[in-house]
Amino acid sequence: MINERNLPILATLLVFILLYGYGVYEYKGFRDTLVFSNLLTDNAFLIITAIGMTFVILSGGIDLSVGSMIAFVGVLMAYLISTAGIHPLFAIAIALLVGVAFGTLMGIIIAFFEIQAFIVTLAGMFLFRGLAYLINLDAVPISHPFITGLSDVYLPLPGRGGLTFIAMAMLVLLIIGILIARRTRFGMSVYALGGDSHSAALLGVPVKKTVIKIYALSGFYSAMSGVIFAIYTGSAYPLAAVGVELDAIAAVVIGGTLLTGGVGYVFGTFLGGMIQGIIQTLITFDGSLNSWWTKLAVGGLLLFFILLQKGIVMWVKKRSAA
Amino acid sequence: MSYLIKATSVVEEAQGAPRPLLEINHLSKSFTGVQALNGVSLQVQSGEIRALLGENGAGKSTLIKVLTGVYPRDSGEIVLDGRLMSASDSGHAQRLGISTVYQEVNLIPTMSVMENLTLQHQEKTFGLISWKKAEIRARELLAQVGLDIDPLRQLDTYSIAIQQLVAIARALSTQAKMLILDEPTASLDSDEIQQLFALMRRLKAEGLGIIFVTHFLDQVYSITDSITVLRNGECVGTFQTAELTRSELVSHMVGKSLEDLTPTAHDHSIQRERADLLQLNNVGKQRYLQPLDLRIAAGEIVGVAGLLGSGRTELCELAYGSVKADQGDVTLGKHSLTKSSLRRAIQVGMGYCPEDRKQDGIVAELSVRENMILALQASRGWWSPISMAEQQHLVEDMIQRLAIKTSDMDKPIGELSGGNQQKVILARWLITHPALLILDEPTRGIDIGAHHEIIHIIKELCEQGMGLLVASSELEELVLFAHRVVVMKDHQKIAELHGEDVSEQAILRQIAS
């Protein structure tokens, strides 16, 4: 089903293949599966956050609170495990519940008081960061045999690479995200809201309920990302993941989702996150470039995708008018 | 659709006489001071096509929105198929059996036809949507309305007419007992309208009740069984279509007899010694409009005729300057406007009411007052604000002069009916005291009463010495007031008719030549 709406994600795929192909061509080390599996692990928390963000952006909204949520959940987990002595499994469950609860609350405010998501989630962003500091001012290690056990889970791949627990968790969450987006009524309601919220209401889409669920889902995914981030770094720090909300938005847009909502795919977001990772890896392999070149490349790509989408939208409009 | 036939036959057996499918009893609804519906009662049988007619602001839209649960009602009851119903929202109304298709296609443009057709009704296997089943269902629904299109394609890649039929297909998918069609023909051509009518007849045979809202009386007489007329929120009456003459219908709608409405014969002649107000010298733009000359004197109305896409709107846009010509000169009075900004054009006395009211004309969220003040404010410059007292005075005056129906001047203009919105836009320009006013389709989509009022206003303005350029697709309207008519075809001016020559036949002959 190749049509004009699939062009952005095809472009994303092309960029991904070109970048990866360039790496393979230029650097011997790039050919090993290790590079790919490291990409999955190192970008897992960003991709997980971005999956939740995809739903938000598809519906025409935005969620700026996700970066702070990651830090808050990490610090909360560290507190529950180290200070309160709760088993990590319960700590994770509590952290996720808190994430969903905060997401739901923001959703309720957005839906019922009809306040822009930008402002509500901006408030959430400051609030969660503040709450993180309230619990702990410094970086603390999260050490527990269970967490170490999780870090040790490893599924070897041919070559030197292998899937870590983190990578596997991300892939599972990715599949769940894709199913929710394309195979549930809620998912279709999200697309409908982003396409035309007025029409969606007339077509019988429960608008307010859907909006609340969207921010609850984003809350879940960012809390999950916080958990993964804590396992990944083995520590918690209230200043962690500053600016990740913007990286996540970039991943979603580079992944081909229209910022105005209604068009896009969760899988595209995965590619968008991976592309950011590849750029970083390429710059590391090069060795001579400063890591800020990553930002430069991501900025350029972002601009390219926004222009590409605008071009496609204008082209479709012109063609259907003819 | 067999369940429909079954449902009605059961009712008939049980009761002997057919019970109405839809019964509305003493329905009332008011918005902050304006009684939009006042004790409206009507009944629709199954297998009946009912026209719902009335002027703008008569309460048609409100009635439909109350029926479908978009607005809550103040009092009264709605009985559908023997059961008291009270829809809480549009989705609920659909589940209860009332589906609505609106004039503006209310589907999701960014989703595929299939996704639109099955939204909220997707069949699932193991808790997940089955797109295979959805596609089968979508094809069934499309077949029902006689559409053979690819359901997997994006909705907005199809024409508005097809989108409208998809909307009807969707409305039928929800086990509808009542179908409400709210001006569905506004964007369809005559073949497409026939296709729609064939579909309506089939649905009628299957026992569906249909409420059909339209501005076109021809369509009322060719498809409906009966007519309900609303006026000022009250039900004037319900009539059998076959027994009601057009003139009776029109007088019911406007509350006056037709003789009062028919404008008197118009004198096309005008003293040509008057100085030209607007001069277009060889004005044109590549791939937009062939260069042409045009002159309009003060106190003269020049009509622009032509088929859709002939260049009517293009001429208006170039004359006003919202699209810049790439050759030729535009002069208004003593001022050359060839290279000036729109603000300058407004300052020296140009005014323009565009064709697409919703897109180019009104700012729906702003109030009547704010919408009306816009052009005057723009011409004075934003750094010299108009005082509230002056604004209120100006707006009050215009509301009275043009008989604009609104509860107060601070109501969002989006809540007004089409005819009243058009009057507000007209007023917007009138308060700038333009020397020349350009009107593109000033009577599009508004009812007969408002229609005549606007034509009356146009004539009055002309008598006061204003020059007018009026583009319209309705020839009988143009010949009523125009002193001269410019005929457009294929983006060029093909004729200019004067005085005695201005007649519908003459214009048609030119277009057909």
General description of the model:
The complex is a heterodimer of chains A (322) and B (513). By secondary structure, chain A is mostly helical. Chain A has one domain (4-316): ABC transporter involved in vitamin B12 uptake, BtuC. Chain A contains 14 helices and four strands. Chain A has a two-stranded antiparallel sheet with strand order 1-4. In chain A, strands 2-3 form a two-stranded antiparallel ribbon. In chain A, a hairpin with a 5-residue loop joins strand 2 and strand 3. In chain A, helix 2 (33-42) crosses helix 8, helix 3 (44-58) packs across helix 9 and helix 4 (66-83) runs parallel beside helix 6 (117-135). Chain B is α/β, with parallel strands linked by helices. Among the domains of chain B are: 101-172, no CATH class; 276-512, P-loop containing nucleotide triphosphate hydrolases (Rossmann fold, 3-Layer(aba) Sandwich). Chain B is 37% helix and 24% strand. Chain B is built from 19 helices and 22 strands. In chain B, the strands form five sheets. Chain B has a six-stranded mixed beta sheet, sandwiched between helices. The longest helix of chain B is centred in the middle third of the chain and has 16 residues, at 190-205. Chain B starts with a helix and ends with a helix. Mean pLDDT of chain B is 82; it is low at 1-16 and 261-265. Classes of the chains: A mainly alpha (322), B alpha/beta (513). The A-B interface holds A 1, 3-5, 179, 182-185, 188-189, 191-192, 194-196, 198-206, 258, 262-263, 316-317, 319-320 and B 70, 89-92, 94-95, 100, 102, 105-111, 115-116, 119-120, 122, 128-129, 131, 152-154, 156-159, 170. Chain A: GO terms for molecular function: transmembrane transporter activity. Chain A: This is Sugar ABC transporter permease YjfF. Chain A: Belongs to the binding-protein-dependent transport system permease family. AraH/RbsC subfamily. Chain A: Its main location: membrane. Chain A: InterPro entries: ABC_transp_permease (IPR001851).
